Amino acid sequence: MVNATPVGMQGEAPVIDVNRLNPSQLVVDTIYHPMETPLLAAVRAAGVPCANGLGMLVHQAALAFEQWTGEAAPLEVMRVAAAKDPRA
C-alpha cells in the first residue's frame, strides 16, 4: 500500500485499519518529514514492513543532479541533508 497524500504530515491519524494488513505486505508513506508518520508507527507496531519517502526523494534528486551536472550524485551527503529536520 502506498500513501501518496499529505495525510500524516501534521500528525493526523491513519485513515486505514492497519489491523487488516499482514506481514507479507509493504506499506510506503511518501512523506519524509516527519520521518515516522502516525501511519508508519501504527503499521510498524502491527508488524508490517514499511518505509517512508526519504529514499524516493533522495534518488529522484540524485537522478536530476546527474542529468544536470553529468557527475555522480553524492547520495550519502544528499540523504543526510534530506533527513535533517527543516525546523532545526
List the defining traits of the structure above.
3 strands, mainly alpha, 88 residues, three-stranded parallel β-sheet
Q: How would you characterize this protein structure?
A:
The protein has three helices and three strands. It starts with a strand and ends in a 5-residue tail after the last helix. Strands 1-2-3 form a three-stranded parallel sheet, covered by helices on one side. The mean pLDDT is 93. The chain folds into two domains: 1-52, no CATH class; 55-88, no CATH class. With 88 residues, the protein is mainly alpha-helical. Helix 2 packs across helix 3. The protein has helices at residues 38-45, 54-69, 75-83, and strands at residues 2-3, 27-29, 50-51. The radius of gyration is 15 Å and the shape is elongated.
